[in-house]
Amino acid sequence: LAVYFFLSRQKGYANKEIALRLRISDRTVQTHLTRVFHKLQVTSRTEAVHRCMAQGWLPIPDDYMIYSTP
């Protein structure tokens, strides 16, 4: 279920779209995301998606750009 959330976020789906697809409430989506953020020790969806891709839990899209900071 968590991987589906992040695949959906990676594709740009909003919480409401995820909720409709899974037939659950928006609040349930948010609750699951909050719990996953805590487990991953991240504070944003972007961080969570990046962490999941870095761990190999999500595929890295062909058009994914890696930006480095100086």
Q: Biggest β-sheet, characterized?
A: none
Mean model confidence by pLDDT:
78
* Unreliable spans: none
Q: If you compute it from the alpha carbons, what radius of gyration comes out, rounded to the nearest whole angstrom?
A: 13 Å
How many helices in DSSP terms?
4
**Which structural class is indicated by helix and strand composition?**
mainly alpha
Please report which band the strand proportion falls in: under 5%, 5-15%, 15-25%, 25-35%, 35-45% or over 45%. under 5%
Question: Which sequence of SSEs, written as H and E, runs from N to C?
Answer: HHHH
* Portion of residues within helices: 55-70%
- Gross morphology is globular
Count the E strands.
Answer: 0
Head-to-tail CA distance between termini: 36 Å
What can you tell me about this protein's structure?
With 70 residues, this protein is mainly alpha-helical. 60% of the residues lie in helices and 0% in strands. It is built from four helices and no strands. It has helices at 2-10, 15-22, 26-40, 45-54. Helix 1 packs across helix 4 (45-54) and helix 2 (15-22) crosses helix 3. The longest helix has 15 residues, at 26-40. It is globular, with a radius of gyration of 13 Å. The termini are far apart.
